[in-house]
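User: Round two. Same drill as before: sequence, then structure, for each protein.

Assistant: Same drill it is. First protein:
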Amino acid sequence: SPAIFYGNHGLDARLNVERGANPGDNEVSFFFDAIAEQTWVRVEGYYVHSTPGSADGIVQMWHDLVNKVDQTAVMTRISGINQLWERAMLPFDYTNFCAGENWYDDVYIDNTQARVELGNASTWAGCTVREIQVPSAWSSTSITFTVNLGSLTSGDRWLFVVDADGAISDGLKVVTGPGRPPVVDRPPVFD
């Protein structure tokens, strides 16, 4: 069935989309800079299946918050292939006949773009670090989550809400203090 593989391939990193029924069938690849050895990176992806035989799928990938693949009219399934992606597999991929180890932390998979993140800058684009916040409740009027500071252990923090269409709210400064929960002064506003 169709599959997506991501990983280092010697001198570059690659995102492969297999569009057929068998491994390697009608594969399309997107290349970008290799991942440095012994380096933590953040990898994000957003994928939407195409109609079989049509270039109406979406394949987007970010590497350390920088967009590397942005295909909004791509065929992810050839004609006659109706299967959907049914699993995510880790490790994504490691080839070139090299021995290697892959380490993963904070793997988050969802069926929507909607999410909450804390960042280290007042604008989404200005962030060099963002940490996903896993919601325990989400409605049209409120979102409940347990704070995950991750690597945001010092400095100012801003809260961002991404809706199901990928629209990003303005950054809201989060105020914290010893023994007190984070406080945000107003609800998010979408552009």
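Second protein:
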Amino acid sequence: EGEEVTMDLQVNSYVIRGLETARPKGWFELTVEGKPPFLVDSETVFRHSLKVGDEISEQLLRRIKTEADIAWLKAKGMAILSRRMLSERDLRRKLTEEGRPKNAREDVIYTLKRLGLIDDAKYAAIFVRAQLARGPKSKLYLKSKLREKGVRDEYSNQAIEAEFSGVDEVGAVKLLAEKKYKTVKYLPPQK
């Protein structure tokens, strides 16, 4: 007749052995039995009411680790962007150096883009303006530099055209050639 089948769903659980304050400020080192310790932000600690002696499931441990990775990368990204604006690709490279999982990194990039903190169109415009403030640059040079930084051609073209609108390029080249001509003492013999 019908044999009773029981499935033993074993769920691993772990005991929190340590939760010590760590650097940077607002972070804790979480030590869980049988696992290497890792840093967790204070928001994650409070959200999950983590305390020494608590037992947590494997699933909760993975969620805590993911939330901590996202918080770490978000803090790193904000710190980098507070110093200077970067293209999306350059910020992604810097966050990759942190050694955190790709899905956490992509989540942070998405969030920073949604908040308007990463915007390649704005970046291209600022980059072109700054380069031109340092002296004359060709459109080709600017486009090449933006491409090196991972900025799409659409954004670099818009930024370059906006800065060059109303500029007499031929006149600028002539002026540059005249200036250079005055500084040349002699021409080397032609071979």
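The chain has a mean pLDDT of 88.

User: Perfect.
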